Structures are given as C-alpha cells and as structure tokens.
Amino acid sequence: MASELNIHICIDVLDSAEELTQQERDAMSLAQAAANDAYAPYSNFLVGAALVLEDGTLFKGSNQENAAYPSGLCAERTALFAMSAHHPNKKIMLIAVTARRRSEQHFLPAMPCGACRQVMAEYEHKQGESIPVLLQGPEGKFYRLRSVSDLLPFQFNREHL
Ligand code: THU
Asked: Looking at the keywords, is Metal-binding present (predicted)?
C-alpha cells in the first residue's frame, strides 16, 4: 500500500502595502523602482527584484534581455548573482519581486520562474537560514512566504549530490 507525502505551504495574503512591515515596504518600493529600469525591449515585461541583507543593505535587480533571447536573465537572478558577487558572505533577510507591463502603470502578480526559484533555494541553503519572499500579488495585494522552500518544495539541493 503506497503512502502519501503531503507538503504544506503557507502564504500570508496582505491586502495592501499598509499591512507590510517598514522593511518589506522599502524592499517592495525598491523592486518597483528596479522594474522601471528593466532592460526588456523584447517582452516589454518589466520585472524588479530587491534584496535586504543582514546589515540592512538593499540590493536591486531587473530583467536584462538580449537579442539572442536565451542569453537574457531574469530580475531575481540578476539581483542575486550581483549581490553574491559584491557581498559573498552576507545573509539575505528578504527577497521582494514585482512586475509590470511597459504600457501600464500598475504592478502585476510576480511569480518567479523555476530557474529563479532554484537559484533562491541555493542561497537559502548556503546561508542555513530561511529567506522570506514577498511577491506582488493581484489587485494591490502582496504574498508573503516564510521561506524559499515554500516556493520550491521537494527541491534539489547540495544534499542530493
Ligand atoms: N522574468 C523575470 O525577470 N523573472 C521571472 O521570474 C519571470 C520572467 C522576465 C524574463 C523576461 O525578460 C521577461 O520576464 C518575460 O519572460
């Protein structure tokens, strides 16, 4: 008789920015500003990511596209790789992600792609502490996850090597 493995994921749904902590608000504002700077001439889909480091340093990234499409990179990985290159030993306290279409002012639900989830999981594992994730949700709402593992359960990481 086969047994079942159930995975429980908890997501806080915050109805507006007023329900965010100050740190979350600052990170989401930076992610929104970063999205405005995205280099996305092909998709016109602007994504912004912001990281809060353990010493309070804020770090941002935006998607960087390329005429050879697969050579581009998502906002989340742009931010994470740049952060790790500049601050290899600092822990990440929060990742915030948002997105919008160039033709519209309002922000859209931001769902990190699989590759970005995998890269977030790498840094979460490396630091040995959960990284909360704050995502732009629909209609001015926000989604707060306590850990990257909630975005990528059943994940492959260094323990499986
Ligand atoms: N994109 C991101 O920056 N992050 C994601 O997690 C999903 C997709 C970017 C890649 C590309 O520049 C554009 O959005 C459209 O896919």
From this structure: yes
